[in-house]
């Protein structure tokens, strides 16, 4: 153990992606939250989920706006008796997660556009740090202080204080991430059976990293060691942008059956660091661990999406969706070798209670492409089951409101690679309330 190892705590790789993908947020409308399945949509959120399906709209100009409020918790449980705490908790709160879509339909042609947080969308705060902050200190507990002589501790102090019995440290970090996306394109109805769509998406990404370590003290039998680890602070951000294309097909084999297909290409994304403060230069001269101007690869994976919409007149609608994310094609500076491709799939039902009111419920199962080797307390991805429900109310033939909520139940993950005595278990919770409005002009 040396000072460089003690300072490894600042290697923040944290990106708080919110829901249903390692990088991509699929929760992009209130309609999605109330049904969890929209790949065969022919409403205005089809601008994202099924762009070719916009040809099924009536002629006119349409606008859709929605916002989600998201509460998410993150818990890391670490099995090592020397830790001051066995549980490390963080919170993410997103007061508004906006989505906006528009479309203009005329005859067989539809133009569309949209704005959404395609990835990230929040920040995570761990006010008491994470196991990675404590691990380098905790593993010294029980050792004689003389083992630190070669690490810079004066021999007279090492011999005087005896065995290390504990530690204390003030460590905290806040990581945030947001990938804003704007997109546009056109859809064309070739015939009653087939429609096609083509579009482009521009992504601007911003990740921020703020952390501090101070007042690190090793407690010993006959005194404290408080000058081995310097106080440090990090204040850095990364920005980047990329463009990708997507295509879609909408197939109507017969009345009351709609099939949506979509392919989104990988978004090549390089992030450049803008570092204001990096005290890790004290132990990693001359550039530190957050060198200003350094470039990182954080591609957004391509994906295949498919959906089936089936109507059972006069009251019931069924939607089934499937998404497959091509994680292994990304450049994540080596982390892509620790993941597999992942998918989510589910089913949603909508029932027309009265002419103006529809109620819906949906279920989604999401796998994770993260292997145990990938999982860390800074960045982990978990499989999940999600239930969503909501209502849609038509105030007039040209104006409708949606209200929805969802709850996600994550499957616990773990990582044994940090060592037998340092096994970690990971958990999350997520709760969403969403509101949407669609109007036709």
In DSSP terms, counting alpha (H) and pi (I) runs of 4 or more, how many helices? 5
Helix/strand class: mainly beta
Helix content: under 10%
In the sheet with the most strands, the strands line up as 1-2-3-4-5-7-8-11-12-13-14-15-16-18
Q: What is the mean predicted local confidence, pLDDT?
A: 89
First-residue to last-residue Cα separation: 67 Å
- Largest sheet geometry: 14 strands, antiparallel, barrel
Shape: elongated
What is the level-2 CATH architecture name?
Beta Barrel
Proportion of residues in extended strands: over 45%
CATH superfamily: Outer membrane protein transport protein (OMPP1/FadL/TodX)
Task: Note poorly predicted spans.
Answer: 1-16
Number of β-strand runs: 18
In short:
This protein is mainly β and 441 residues long.
Question: What secondary-structure arrangement, pairings included, does this model have?
Answer:
Layout: H1 3-6, H2 30-35, H3 46-49, E1 60-78, E2 87-106, E3 109-126, H4 131-138, H5 155-161, E4 164-189, E5 194-220, E6 223-225, E7 232-251, E8 257-264, E9 270-278, E10 295-297, E11 302-312, E12 316-326, E13 342-354, E14 357-366, E15 384-396, E16 399-410, E17 413-415, E18 424-440
Antiparallel strand pairs: 1-2, 1-18, 2-3, 3-4, 4-5, 5-6, 5-7, 7-8, 7-9, 8-11, 9-10, 11-12, 12-13, 13-14, 14-15, 15-16, 16-18, 17-18
